[in-house]
Amino acid sequence: MRTDFERCYVTAHGGVAVLTLNHPESLNAASVSMVGGMAKALTHVDKGDFRALVITGEGRGFCSGANLAEAAGSERSSEANAGDALETAYHPMLRRLRDFRLPIVTAVNGAAAGIGMSIALMGDIIVAARSAYFLQAFARVGLVPDGGSTWMLPRLIGLARARELSLLAEKLPAEQALDWGLINRVFDDASMLDEAMKLAKRLADGPASLAFVRRLYWDSPHNTFESQIDLERMAQQRAGRTEDFREGVMAFLQKRPSQFKGK
Which has the closest alpha carbon to 231: 219, 222, 240, 239? Predict the structure, then answer.
């Protein structure tokens, strides 16, 4: 079943929801209207019975970055628009993805450039088609990296490589992104989405504690060792009160596969 939103849509595949960016004529450039559609789509997914989320792009690209044509046509000055749109549209969406309750798989087909690269990196598991590439395109148009790039990239691939990507604005092919540790897996173009769905299905069949796991890893870069192990203790207390923990223990004792319900 498909539910349409502005420049994106959601399809249901059992416990997996697929959010597809849908403006292929611009390689799914992230306009303010698309971001608004994504916010509504995430609310739709959050209210459903889904247990994992896949984000991908329609057609030949994942997301080619912010929609520069839309920004240029704004009645406001480009200087004001470039910064203001971040705080009013893009940042709330990125925070929403960071705090989302479901594990996220991003399935990158084609270009993931600019803010599109940031959206791709919000996945807990990031997979890419062999022909896909990542691009910090900002220097090409006289802007600075945004969408959390200067926070995420040094932590994922180190400061030297992060600076190189942003200053030179060169394409990073999927295979090299895998070698650098930026993404998790690369698949042939024809099978990439199917493989992403398999991973998402595994997550959807997993326990409720996966939501706590993703939160712990998002929090960890901010914290000292002591504060992080304290967060682990609190998360473990919550996990230990779930039905899935009781099921996991019983399955272990009975030597059978666990049947988790996400509760």
Answer: 219
